[in-house]
Amino acid sequence: MRAVRPGLIAVAVTLAMLVCSIGLAFAARTLRHANQSTPTTTTPTVPMPPLPTAAPPPPAAGTGSSGPVTVVQTDLGAGQGLAVQSPVQLGTSPPAAGVTLVTINDTQRYQQVTGFGASMTDSSAWLLERELPPDATSTLMRTLFSPSILHLAVVRVPIGASDFTVGKPYTYDDMPPGKQDPKLEHFSIAHDRAYILPALNQARALNPQLQFIAAPWTAPAWMKGNHLLSNVHDRGTLRAAAYGPWAAYIIKFMKAYAAAGIPISGFTPANEPGNPTKYPGMNFNPTAESHWITQWLVPALVRAHLHPQLYGTELGWNSGWYAQQLLTTPSSHDLAGISWHCYYGSPTVMTTIHNSAPKFGTIVDECSPGISAIPIPEVLISSLRNWASSVALWNVALDQGFGPVQQPNKGCPGCYGLIDVNDETHTAAPLSDLFQLGQASEFVQPGAYVVAANNFVAYNYARPGINFISSGLDDVAFVNPNGTRVLIAYNNAPTAIPFAVSWHGQYFQYTLQPGAMTTFEWASTA
User: Fold this and answer.
1) Quick one: 6-112+448-522 is in which CATH superfamily?
2) I need a surface site. Which of 7, 41, 198, 324 has the fewest CB within 10 A?
3) Residue 48: pLDDT over 80
4) Domain 115-441 classification at class level
């Protein structure tokens, strides 16, 4: 194990610097989910203290019969965010009968983890690049993306406008009404060079291994049956004559972004296809999506010598039907996997799809704090327990009004970013979800394996807006590439839960407070 945990120290120092240098207010917004039940009762905004400026050295490897376990915790009720706790000890004494026991079997391995992250929307990039002082942006980006700090490893990138766009919704080849550009002679990513690409390049400079997953919300209006960027009444289909130009458009985007320093490693054909939106959107049913992928996109990628991983579906957990249909089409030979959003259903649908088609990967590439029916710790844990290799939340940053956006966008009232940027005072506050995301991203290394561990909750979806995770202890365990073991646990109950962990004949015990998310890490002695 490392002699010093630079990440925890760097998190503490960097965020403390933000507090001192730019007046950054630590805040944890709880009970902001008006449509979600939570295990604790708190005020809407709970101030959190700066994290410690130093962390104790991580425990050394044990001798086979005992060893220390590093403990880091985010507990909003106690005002803790990635707070280092006193280590606990692995030992050979089993717990008393009746104690809740998490048994880890790291010989039974499941999927490998790519990483954790969020989306750099137009709104997020604008706030980071235009509404904060440059030194504040630099410090904040270092906190988010440096491998020695929070180590966000996945960034979702909208291709053109999304529902979070500062100005008028746009594509890279907009034409006047009645005009077309099938040869894409007017294609340009000039809009993104102002602040989106600078933000992405800053992130990649901090983490050169950063994975960028690109997703279009819409094709240019002249390519669509409704001649609009929107998908009102679900009429925004891609015209048959536009299948070729749309594939060429995507190739141009990938080449232009690569030339600008941002290589695209993953691609989804459409964000939430079939969602009848006033903001940019498309109707792209499984048959149409499959035909476009197989007959147009893949040949264009081959000709361009581009090799992104292709993920289909890009819908909520209630859309298993779409994934099932897509995986029976010819495009199944071209897909790396299925992408999901955390809305309107149970994460167990991902296991259902995996069991029916185990060769395909699984990612969760959108989940917005504020509208997720379940707490963010449960989004992370339940997704990883149901075959997700990566989990990305929604906006990196939003302002105090859930934007900025411009009509016809309405954004998402109630959606929060990881960072709350005040565009009047030009200050930023990391929200509770960032600390909770960090409980995974700081400890679970890219390439880690999810391993077997029992949990004590059920994921039985009931209806929108209700925390459907049953009361109890939830957890997920990993083996890192460096050999360390990690357990992430969350108390989704209204009372404290004492429990024990069993691993290779060794044990440790801990009591988790209501709503607390805790990460345990220890060196292998077995």
Assistant:
1) Golgi alpha-mannosidase II (2.60.40.1180)
2) 41
3) no
4) alpha beta
